[in-house]
Structure formats: C-alpha cells, structure tokens
Amino acid sequence: MKYNIRGENIEVTGAIRDYVEKKIGKLERYFDTPPTSDVHVNLSVYNDEQQIEVTIPMTDLLLRGEVQHVDLYAAIDLVVDKLERQIRKYKTKVNRKFRQKGAPKHIFAELEKEANGKSDSDEIEIVRTKRFNLKPMDSEEAILQMDMLGHAFFVFTNAATDDTNVVYRRKDGRYGLIEPMS
Length: 182
Known about the structure:
Blueprint: E1 2-8, H1 14-25, E2 38-46, E3 49-58, E4 61-69, H2 72-101, E5 136-137, H3 139-149, E6 153-158, E7 164-169, E8 175-178
Parallel strand pairs: 1-2, 5-6
Antiparallel strand pairs: 2-3, 3-4, 6-7, 7-8
C-alpha cells in the first residue's frame, strides 16, 4: 500500500507518519494478496481535538473511517479498529456469497478469533425497543425537548403538516431537520 498522509493545522512528523503506516499496515493481514491501492490519511486539529480520516479505495470495496479524539495516537488506533470491523463484515458477506455459488477461492485470508470472543457475524441485534406517543409540536420546540433530554436526535409530529419529522444535532453544533417527501 502507498500512503498519502496529509496534515491540516498539524505538522506530520516522521514519528506520526511511522505510527500511521505501522498501524494501517496491519490491515494487510486480512488479505490473501496485499492491496496495491493508495491509502489517503488526513490528520487535522480543531479546538484541541484531533481528527483522522482514512480512505482506502479498492476494487469492489471502499474502506473509510473517521475518528475524533483528544489524543492523536488513540484516534489512529480507533480508526484502525473501525476499518478492521468493516473488513470483517465485508469478508463474511463475500465468503458467504462465494460458498453459496460454490466458488473455491476466497478473497480474504482466514481471520483468527478475537481474544475477547467477538463473532464475525454481520447479524443485526436490536437490544432495546422504545415506544412513545408523538406530541404535535414545531421544530423549535422539538429542538428544546431534544436538548433537555440530552439526545442527539428527537422524533416528533410536525404540528403544521401532521407528518413525522426528526430533528438532530449536526457535528458542527447546528441542527438539522428530516422531513418525509410528499
């Protein structure tokens, strides 16, 4: 893999470059043949918070991870964990499809079981269900309710249109509104 490491409001030192290449290079063990694609890494610092974005474009797959953390090295570790989860999920789907078609070759190398016992299944498990009545209100009142509850989003019935809407807090601190199309 070829690395394209770029810094925004931060100087990419040799130590940072080596750490990024070492950690992301560990992803090669998941492939039978190491990918020849470029690895795009953007490091940035905003308001004492480090952000790392990693994009690895490959044939039939785009691996992408983004993490914000106060410690740059911790952010690098977390983004590699995210990319590993994406690879495991994709590997499971691809291998299942090839087994169903009877293809003898698998794209990914065999994965070892994690020490903590996580399974490689891509099944979605719902661990909690909430039911509540939607109170008719306007978007401003919904934002106030969301802030009072400390949630990142809030579902409500729009009093003007009688449709179900969602307000949410964006990463930049402002708010967004999701409305159904008529």
